[in-house]
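INTERNAL AUDIT FORM
Audit reference: QA-55
Scope: verify that the stored structure record matches its stored sequence.
Auditor: D.O.
Record contents follow.
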Amino acid sequence: MRTLFNILGPLTNPAFAKRQVVGVFEPSLCDFMAQVLAALGTEHALVVHGHGGLDELSLSGPSDVTELRDGQITHYQVTPEQLGYASTSLASLVVTSASESALLISSALANKAGDQFDAARAMIALNAGAALYVSGCAQTLTAGVELAADVIATGQAKEKLSSFIQFTQIMAAAAIEL
């Protein structure tokens, strides 16, 4: 269920991120969110709404993008094809539980073969690539997506996920001991 908190959450980031990707469930919110981010001092952000009502870049069709960069706001659409992927149905990515989602993501990052994992890898690359672009690690959105795909293909993304899981388990155990 979509609520006001879906809009407020990204705007109340306690880290005061100066660069970020923000997804919105309604395309009419893209410009509003970009204006608010500009007022909050954000340097570079992409506010995205994906085909099919997604609050992220979509593999199933064009995504609306509102880009805030150095105080300037621009609007455009981007298709999966422009970012190096064929448009694909998202039906194979529908999961019914957190554990099923974790398994799909882990398998995709481990470069497991299959249409479902290919689609998951592509969605991960599209959205991680957007983050790499706004962070300054890539000069263009396309270059960011290519970099993300390379990091996945080499196994570095899976290694980082494994390290993060291990870290959170250690921290959870330490918190229990307190």
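Auditor finding: record pair retrieved intact. The chain has six helices and four strands.
Action required: none
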